[in-house]
Specification:
Structural class: alpha+beta
Radius of gyration: 21 Å
Largest sheet: 3 strands, antiparallel
Helix content: 40-55%
Length: about 450
């Protein structure tokens, strides 16, 4: 039986593969294999005291470490009934935005852009388009600078702790960030011009169910307490299991999620499709120029990330200006009084909705942990879109020319494969679960 096989997905975080079985002119089977090594983070967290949990959980990923940090802290504080100060909330949002800027700039300019311009990667792209690559890397550096100043370092922040921050940024540091962000916001027009110049293929049109958090405060943002879907459902964050019903699949180390038995999509395109009307400023102008929403083309996720990149720059600048105008108040982290209970928190990280749920005993030691990442939620939808793209492409292209375009589909999700792979309990289930290496037959 003819197959389209890519044993290593290029320009994504982690290790994955695509396999499509063709029967005549029909697609018989699609497998997106995520085969990063076993991730034992939930099990490693059990037995740790509350103030050790976040420093372990954030190491699920380097790219997403600020997102895991903030989400983990929120879950711990919910479990203990802690309320942090408005200043802490703003600083955490600023740290979070640094991650969004860094991650979106890296993906748009270095991982996705080569697909549109016909290059194998960022290095050959830079030889012919140095200014575009320089812009992307500089914007990524702006995001790193925010994380360094607020989080203590660019990767795996050490300064954000349960109840607050270890130290506050200086006025000089905030002024440096203001200067960087003002210059970055001015570069937004270049980002929009670049994205407008690209031709987005339409071979991956496929109906999508979108899921995202409802932003707080009636404005666009990445924090919320209610899950909403494009099918009209709403759930509190604590009911996340009713939305992302996970199941084990034999061909991947990552579970797959389905809503009412159907795949769904989380991420920038989902957020803008559901809540883009809340945008203002340059980001709203960029969205109006680059996207027609709701979109059914996953490749539009690249443009959606560019819009969110601009929003994140504008919002980060607004927070820095506010902190400079109001002045920072020296405050210690809120005191923790451990108690038995469960806390569940969610945020919108670059690739979609992230959930952390923790249960603690009376002394504040973790007895259970559950972390559901965006790429795990998107995995089933990736297979849906690969199938839809293959069905269209078969009509006009030979098999050996389809693989590159299928990789483009997967890259549009900006998958974080390491985050998606977590511990599976195989005790007594060896007959039901068999993860195959790329190219192996079931």
């Amino acid at each position: 039986m003819p197959r389209i096989s890519r044993e290593h997905l290029a320009r994504v975080e982690g290790h994955g593969a695509i396999e499509v079985a063709i029967d005549g002119e029909a697609v018989r089977e699609v497998k997106v294999r995520l085969f990063e090594g076993a991730r034992l983070f939930e099990a490693l967290l059990v037995g740790r005291r509350y103030d050790e949990v976040t420093s372990v959980a954030m190491r699920i990923c380097a790219i997403c470490s600020a997102g895991h940090t903030v989400t983990s802290l929120k879950a711990i504080e919910k479990a203990f009934g802690l309320r942090v100060s408005p200043q802490t909330e703003l600083l955490r949002e600023l740290l979070f935005l640094g991650q969004m800027i860094e991650s979106h700039a890296l993906h748009v300019f270095c991982l996705a852009l080569p697909d549109y311009l016909g290059y194998a990667g960022a290095l050959p792209l830079a030889a012919d388009h140095p200014e575009e690559v320089k812009l992307g890397l500089w914007l990524k550096k702006v995001g790193n600078a925010i994380q360094e100043e607020i989080g203590g370092r660019a990767v795996h922040p050490v300064n954000a702790v349960v109840g607050g921050f270890g130290r506050l940024p200086s006025q000089e540091a905030l002024r440096r960030l203001q200067g960087l962000l003002e210059e970055a916001v001015e570069q937004s027009d270049r980002v929009v011009a670049l994205m407008k110049s690209l031709q987005t293929p339409d071979f991956c049109q496929s109906p999508n169910v979108y899921v995202a958090l409802r932003p707080e405060g009636g404005r666009f943002g990445f924090f919320g307490e209610t899950i909403v879907t494009s099918t009209g459902e709403t759930k509190p964050v604590s009911a996340y299991r009713e939305v992302c019903g996970e199941e084990v699949v034999r061909h991947s180390h990552a579970k797959q999620s389905r809503l009412a038995g159907k795949p769904f999509m989380v991420g920038a395109l989902a957020r803008l499709s559901l809540h883009g009307h809340l945008l203002g400023g340059r980001a709203r102008a960029a969205m109006d120029q680059l996207l027609r929403l709701p979109s059914q083309n996953i490749l539009d996720n690249n443009a959606a990330q560019a819009v969110e990149l601009i929003f994140s720059l504008e919002r980060a600048l607004a927070i820095v200006k506010h902190l400079l105008a109001e002045g920072l108040v020296e405050e210690k982290p809120v005191a923790v009084v451990p108690r038995a209970g469960t806390g569940t928190a969610a945020t919108e990280v670059p690739r979609g909705t992230l959930y952390h749920s923790y249960t603690f005993d009376q002394q504040g030691y973790l007895v259970a942990a559950d972390i559901v990442t965006p790429t795990a939620q998107n995995s089933a939808n990736m297979e849906k879109d690969v199938r839809a793209a293959t069905e269209r492409l078969l009509a006009g292209l030979p098999l050996d020319q389809i693989g590159d375009r299928l990789e483009m589909v997967i890259r549009a999700y900006d998958p974080c494969i390491s985050c998606a792979v977590h511990l599976l309990d195989l005790r007594g289930a060896s007959a039901a679960v068999e993860v195959l290496a790329p190219g192996e037959e079931a």
